[in-house]
Write a structure and sequence with these properties.
14 helices, ABC transporter involved in vitamin B12 uptake, BtuC, 0% strand
Length: 273
């Protein structure tokens, strides 16, 4: 197994996993606490529109996906606050619109598009130094933002109205955090893929939440659990010769299930003793 460390692609995979775990651990805690999983799923699938446009125009698909995702995130946030539009309806609009645009432009793209399956299903072993620098930069931004504004973020995550009563600029923080959600999703697309990326933003947090209810501790635990999930998924992918993205998510679900069962057994013993 140690010979894998000699390969550059595996070294890139380890670094990419680390920074992806940091970014997803931080913003994912806000997503789960604020119950934005469905919205995040909508943004994830809407990003396919940007990928399709990028493939058609010859521009970097990640750049167009980032722009499309951020605009979709802002659109969902704006529409969901209108009295004549329900939140789930707003999500459905951008979810289906993004997928439709992506499919249309993918089919219109000249020639064969080998990168399309990588964006849909992910392949962490193909990430480049550019992807790693992007994930590292995003991680640094998230660490800085959450370090300076942790208390307002916690107030907004748990009670928006209380946050407003404390004169916190709720709208500014909501739009900024939606932007970070969109950028984190796009940064992890090549690693996990559109189909599965939402799991990396929720499963480590769900596992961490089994052991603590503290927002700060969930962030730290999520980062650690997320990295363990990535490493376990990579080894599983290597042994079974299956796509790394699916292997990482499968391993994440396995870890969550084992932790859930372990906690349930522990509580049963505590009651019986």
């Amino acid at each position: 197994m140690l010979e894998l460390l000699n390969y550059t692609f595996f070294q890139h995979a380890l670094l990419g996993s680390l920074f992806a775990s940091i970014a997803c651990g931080i913003i994912g805690t806000y997503i789960v606490t604020r119950r934005l999983v469905f919205i995040s799923g909508g943004i994830t699938h809407a990003s396919f529109g940007g990928i399709g446009i990028g493939l058609y125009t010859g521009i970097s698909p990640l750049l167009t996906a980032a722009i499309f995702s951020v605009l979709s995130a802002f659109g969902v946030e704006w529409l969901s606050k209108r009295k004549d539009m329900r939140e789930d309806s707003a999500i459905a609009v951008f979810w289906t619109f993004g997928m439709a645009i992506g499919i249309i432009f993918s089919f219109l793209s000249p020639g064969f598009t080998p990168d399309l399956s990588a964006f849909l299903f992910g392949n962490i072993l193909t990430i480049t130094l550019t992807d790693i620098w992007m994930l590292m930069g995003l991680s640094v931004l998230l660490i800085g933002f959450f370090t300076f504004f942790l208390n307002p973020i916690i107030y907004i995550a748990f009670d928006r109205e209380y946050a407003r009563s404390q004169r916190i600029p709720v709208t500014f923080f909501e739009y900024t955090l939606m932007m970070f959600i969109a950028l984190t999703i796009v940064a992890c697309l090549r690693m996990i893929g559109i189909v599965l990326v939402i799991s990396l933003l929720t499963l480590p947090q769900m596992t961490a939440n089994l052991f603590t209810h503290s927002f700060k501790k969930i962030i730290w635990l999520s980062i650690g659990i997320g990295y363990i999930d990535c490493l376990g998924g990579l080894l599983l992918s290597y042994h079974l010769q299956v796509p790394s993205g699916a292997a990482i998510i499968f391993f994440s679900i396995l870890v969550y299930t084992l932790c859930k069962m372990g906690k349930t057994l522990y509580l049963c013993r505590q009651r019986n003793s």
